[in-house]
Design goal:
heterodimer; A: 405 residues; mainly alpha; Substrate Binding Domain Of Dnak, Chain:A, Domain 2; three-stranded antiparallel beta sheet; 11 helices; elongated; B: 447 residues; PX Domain; two-stranded antiparallel sheet; 66% helix; Sorting nexin-4-like isoform X2 (chain A)
């Protein structure tokens, strides 16, 4: 699922090896149970040389992963940041546990967290981040280090801006298309997850009802002479058939997890597009502000009022102001205009850089998505084939028994 | 003697060997075509079965050395191949073949109904011609069954498919309904034709050969009323039912109950499958609509949508065959069991009558030294014949039932296997498609 050969991953082998339950006091000093995950790392050159040193390891809980991701989102707004596995079990078909402490859920989350780390560590840009490296290698002091980056301040305003509605005049068309696509991706993956869960529910029902055959065949065989053995053993196979669905559906959860990853990825993609909109908006605002200030300066300098302004009106009503006042205002205006020009320059650069870098990463993301999802579909097909083979086996066994009736 | 002009009654003494075959050979009825039936096995099977040979006295084991059983074994060996071909083949050389097919709708001013072609091929001298082809409707089959019940009350008459269908709920003229009904009528007629006693019934002969059955129907209704009154009236109470008939009754009760449960399970499965199908269809549609917004992923997603659609078709086929082939057979056996219980009741009645008359006669004998009257002896004969016929038919029924259910359950297994095979094939071809594309991409990348 994850490309090899990016910087961090070349240097070290990373895995999330285990999960454990812990108890402790939380932020509001209440006792709580939570799960921690063991992150193991080993220098890659040691591995390739055939040595087998003990890995370095540390424990992290889910909320620390969340913190890391938030830091990355804020610090690299032009990157489609890999998502974390879901916080709570969603799209659950009814027999599957929605309990966060359920061992199957914890196991799938362990895999999801490992996947997240591998993706981040193999990303051409993200893998170089110091905070990431710290996260993987030093258990203590990491939270403080993250806070010191000051990303919190940026994150609040950023998140606020992402949710705000504003009208942009000239966004990059490609980004608007990409944003539209991210909406489509989100909508289709969530529809698919819902539909799949419903199908799983129904399939469960079909298999389980067959278990009733096992019981009634057994009861019936008790009053039969020659037919009895064949009936009874056939019934046992019906029981086996009914039981087989549990493993089949548990395995299918891996497919659901892959879909869920891209459901979350869609959101990350959207965020990059929105960041562009925000940049563009701020640039447009700054440009507009600069233009209006320049106009004001022109009016003050020439005395010609081109546009309606209150100052102009009051001048007409109350008379012109004194020349010293005018000088003072002109000077202020010049300063503001200079600042404004700087601001526009900065924002233009910021916008252009963001567009350039984001476009590169969005292309990378597209290729990754196409590859990953195609592989996911292939592995889903493989699962279906395995399910069919099991079905054929069980019914063939049952048929053998029925033939002996 | 027993009521009705039946020939080939094994229980009544002086008959040629060929016709005494019946009770034992019924017990050795073909079990499974193929390697399971062994030549040496059949003799011991015959030895285990009960068979009433003479005077209604149950014979626990028939000595293998007796002439008739020797004849049986030889006969059975010859007929193994015939049995392998047709589960309904009787052990005697078949000389009566019947088929029900070719349904056609008839529209008249009074009513609309379906007729079926009934074809007969026979070498029996009871028939004037070697071949017949007539058209009959359900009413005619019903008439035949009533006549058989009346004229052979000591025998188990196979059931007909249900007579009444709720208008508006079931379409009497839909292809599936007609097909299912026709298969059941065919089975009914074949079972009658294979029965060593029933197949010689004159009403069957008329049914198979007469141009026009209508005239007899009025008479049939009258006679049905008459004879059933004869049986019910009498009001004798049964002292002690022989153990074997008790066992039969108990077995029928349990079996009927189990069949009811199986019917309910099958219906539940059908319901779950139908709901599964609904969700599957929607599931496939989501893949299609996603495919529309993708470029590289479009073909893979459409491929998955196609597979899901194929699976939907396979589910539908499976469900259809369950409701058309599986459920009707279960229901038919429930009807069969009902009519068998009826026959058991009639047997009880005739035993009760005999015991009652005998008691009365003994009392009179004690009083005025009169000999046992002829009616009492006739009653005794009647009971013994009834018991023998019933036992013979019971064995035949058991073995037919075994064959039918073996076929039914292996059929169900086959349908399920076929469903999974179709699904598997669809997914395998998708993988081939997707993996070809992958290698295509890789080679274009390296180029």
């Amino acid at each position: 699922m994850v490309e090899q050969g990016s910087i961090l991953l070349r240097r070290m082998e990373i895995c999330v090896a285990e999960a454990e339950k812990r108890s402790g006091k939380n932020a509001v000093n209440m006792q709580e149970t939570f799960t921690v995950y063991l992150i193991e790392t080993r220098p890659m050159d040691a591995v390739t040389e055939g040595q087998n040193p003990a890995p370095d390891s540390l424990w992290r809980r889910y909320s620390e992963f969340e913190l890391l991701r938030n830091y990355l989102i804020v610090t690299y707004p032009y990157i489609v940041v890999p998502p974390l596995p879901e916080k709570r079990a969603e799209f659950v078909w009814h027999k599957l546990s929605a309990d966060n402490m359920d061992p199957d859920f914890v196991e799938r989350r362990r895999i999801g967290l490992e996947n997240f780390l591998l993706r981040v560590a193999s990303h051409p840009v993200l893998s170089n981040d110091k905070i990431l490296c710290h996260f993987l290698t030093e258990e203590h002091g990491w939270k403080e280090a993250v806070c010191e980056t000051g990303f919190h301040a940026k994150s609040d305003s950023r998140l606020r801006a992402l949710s705000a509605t504003f009208r942009v005049r000239n966004p990059d068309k490609r980004f608007m298309e990409m944003k539209h696509y991210s909406d489509e991706l989100q909508s289709h993956t969530s529809q698919l997850l819902r539909a799949r869960a419903r199908v799983a529910d129904r399939l469960y029902g079909v298999y389980k009802v067959h278990g009733n055959y096992g019981r009634v065949f057994s009861e019936w065989s008790a009053v039969e002479k020659e037919m009895g053995d064949g009936l009874q053993s056939g019934g046992h196979h019906m029981d086996a058939y009914a039981a087989s669905i549990d493993d089949i559906l548990e395995e299918e959860e891996h497919y659901a997890d892959q879909l869920k990853e891209y459901l979350s990825y869609a959101e990350a993609l959207r965020a990059v597009c929105r960041k562009h909109e925000l940049n563009q908006f701020e640039l447009e605002m700054a440009s507009h502000d600069l233009i209006s200030k320049k106009q004001q300066r022109e009016e003050l300098a020439t005395g010609i009022v081109r546009t309606f302004s209150f100052k102009g009106m009051t001048n007409k009503i109350f008379g012109q102001e004194a020349p010293e006042q005018r000088e003072a205002r002109l000077k202020l205006l010049e300063e503001l205009i200079a600042e404004g020009e700087e601001s526009v320059k900065e924002k233009t650069v910021e916008c252009e850089e963001h567009v350039e870098q984001a476009w590169v990463d969005m292309q990378r993301f597209k290729e990754q998505k196409d590859k990953d999802l195609r592989e996911a579909l292939i592995s889903y097909a493989v699962m279906q084939i395995s399910m069919c083979k099991k079905g054929i086996q069980v019914w063939s066994n049952a048929k053998e028994c029925f033939l002996k009736m | 003697m027993s009521v009705g002009a039946a020939r080939g009654l094994a229980s009544s003494g002086q008959k040629p060997i060929a016709e005494i075959l019946h009770p034992l050979s019924a017990a050795e009825e073909p079990l499974s075509p193929g390697p399971d039936v062994s030549v040496t096995g059949s003799a011991s099977v015959g030895g285990e079965k009960e068979a009433g040979l003479t005077n209604g006295t149950p014979v626990e084991t028939s000595s293998p050395a007796s002439a008739s059983s020797l004849f049986n074994r030889l006969q059975l060996d010859d007929d193994l191949e015939a049995d392998a071909r047709d589960p309904y083949a009787a052990s005697e050389t078949r000389d009566l073949f019947v088929t029900v097919d070719d349904p056609k709708k008839h529209v008249s001013t009074m009513e609309t109904y379906i007729t079926y072609r009934v074809s007969t091929k026979t070498t029996r001298i009871e028939f004037d011609l070697p071949e017949y082809c007539v058209r009959r409707r359900y009413q005619d089959f019903d008439w035949l069954r009533i006549k058989l019940e009346d004229s052979q009350p000591t025998h188990l008459i196979p059931p007909l498919p249900e007579k009444f269908v709720m208008k508006g709920v079931v379409d009497r003229f839909s292809e599936e309904f007609v097909e299912t009904r026709m298969k059941a009528l065919d089975k009914f007629l074949k079972r009658v034709a294979d029965h060593p006693v029933l197949s010689f019934n004159t009403h069957l002969n008329a049914f198979l050969s007469a141009k026009d059955l209508n005239k007899r129907q009025g008479l049939a209704l009258l006679s049905k009323v008459g004879e059933s009154v004869k049986h019910v009236a009498g009001g004798y109470k049964l002292r002690a039912r022989p153990a074997e008939f008790c066992a039969m009754g108990e077995y029928l009760d349990t079996f009927s109950q189990k069949l009811g449960t199986i019917d309910r399970i099958a219906q539940r499965i059908l319901k779950e499958q139908s709901e599964h199908l609904t969700e599957l269809r929607e599931y496939g549609a989501v893949y299609s609509s996603w495919a529309a917004v993708e470029d590289e992923l479009r073909r893979p997603l459409e491929g998955v949508a196609g597979c899901v659609t194929t699976c939907c078709g396979a589910v539908e086929e499976l469900s259809d065959s369950m409701s058309q082939d599986f459920l009707p057979v279960l229901r038919e056996y429930v009807l069969y069991i009902e009519s068998m219980k009826n026959v058991l009741r009639k047997r009880d009645q005739s035993q009760a009558e005999y015991e009652g008359r005998l008691e009365a006669a003994i009392l009179r004998k004690q009083e005025d030294r009169a000999p046992i009257p002829l009616e009492v002896e006739k009653c005794q004969d009647k009971v013994e014949c009834f018991n023998a016929d019933l036992k013979a038919d019971w064995e035949r029924w058991q073995s037919n039932k075994r064959q039918d259910f073996k076929q039914l359950l292996t059929g169900m297994a086959d349908k399920n296997i076929s469903y999974y095979e179709k699904s598997q094939a669809a997914w395998e071809s998708l993988i081939t498609l997707l993996q070809d594309k992958q290698t295509e991409d890789k080679t274009s990348e390296t180029n």
